[in-house]
Design a protein that fits this description.
Distance between the termini: 67 Å
Number of strands: 12
Strand content: 5-15%
Strand order of the largest sheet: 2-1-4-3
Radius of gyration: 24 Å
Order of helices and strands: EEHEEEEHHHEHEHHEEHEHEH
Number of helices: 10
């Protein structure tokens, strides 16, 4: 009895295919299966008979999720520990829709970051190495800036205003007081004001700071242009995976959008630090003086981890 089976037919019966062509055909079939996943009636056309979720091809039975997994395994280049955590996302219908949208966007418009950097946050910071999570919104949308790490820009690019304010807070927390002349009031001098020259935060990522935007791509000159297309579902899954399957991670939630992710995080297992966004529009409403970087390092040391070298 045939049930939940797809038979690939030609006029002469079952197709006999070489492995390479069969795999290509499976890729095409998986695309159709996703679109027809709720179809209950038999559909005939293009030489196929669709009877449900599985595929009968060249004498072998394939589960739909396995077909989709193999298909996307060839397309999504992501660090292996993250692949294991996020595989259900790659297997899902929404991710194919997202993939098709991103592919068309990159083909027809100018988008950032460059394609090789879309999953850079995951590739730089493996799942089991994450110690700190900083959440952004979407990538910088001007040429040469974005390279897959939130708030970070490529070497040689001018510091964006939010990153400049992050550096100012870091100097305030960790900068050394300058030499005080005899008789001067130390409180009137303040800390050293030298800021880092480069906006590339790759060194943070390499130490275990996941620099994750909630949307991983954007169209040139159009902030939030790829929001609501599926990236938020994907990055929410990454946050949930860390919150549920790891412990003692520091989550730095700056601004309303980031703070909304607090519902995914168990404060008994992790350290959650919240404040205003470092944007010039809000930095003076609580970001400056938050002391988050020092508090983060204190927490890491208390739990036997090496602190982050922020400067």
């Amino acid at each position: 009895m045939l049930h939940n089976v797809l038979i690939v037919q030609s006029r002469k019966g079952l197709l006999h295919l070489f492995d390479t062509f069969a795999y290509h055909l499976i890729s095409i079939i998986s695309n159709h299966l996703i679109k027809k996943k709720k179809e209950k009636k038999i559909k005939r056309g293009a030489g196929f008979v669709f009877l449900g979720k599985c595929v009968y091809l060249c004498g072998a039975l394939f589960d739909k999720s396995e077909i989709i997994r193999k298909r996307f395994a060839m397309q999504v280049k992501i660090e292996e520990s993250w692949r294991q955590q996020l595989q259900p996302q790659f297997d899902s219908a929404y991710f194919e829709i997202l993939t098709n949208f991103v592919r068309r966007a990159y083909q027809t418009t100018t988008c950032y970051p460059p394609g090789r950097f879309i999953f850079e946050a995951f590739n730089r910071t493996p799942f089991d190495k994450v110690k700190v999570v900083i959440l952004g919104q979407d990538p910088y949308h001007e040429p040469g800036q974005a390279h897959g790490l939130c708030f970070s820009v490529q070497p040689g690019i001018a510091l964006p205003p939010s990153l400049l304010n992050i550096y100012k807070e870091l100097v305030n927390e960790f900068g050394q007081p300058p030499m005080v002349m005899p008789g001067a009031d130390p409180r009137s001098v303040g800390r050293a004001t030298a800021l880092p020259n480069s906006g590339d935060l790759s060194a943070w990522a390499d130490q275990g700071v996941l620099l994750l935007n909630t949307s991983l791509t954007v169209q040139r000159g159009m902030a939030n242009s790829h929001s609501g297309k599926g990236w938020e579902t994907f990055t929410d899954a990454a946050i949930k995976a860390l919150a549920n399957n790891r412990s003692n991670i520091v989550f730095l939630l700056w601004g309303r959008n980031a703070r909304n992710k607090k519902v995914f995080i168990d404060g008994r297992k992790h350290c959650v630090l919240e404040c205003a966004h470092p944007s010039p529009l809000s930095a003076y409403n609580g970001f400056f003086g938050c002391n988050h970087f020092a508090l983060c390092n204190n927490y890491l040391q208390q739990h036997g981890m090496t602190p982050i070298q922020w400067l």
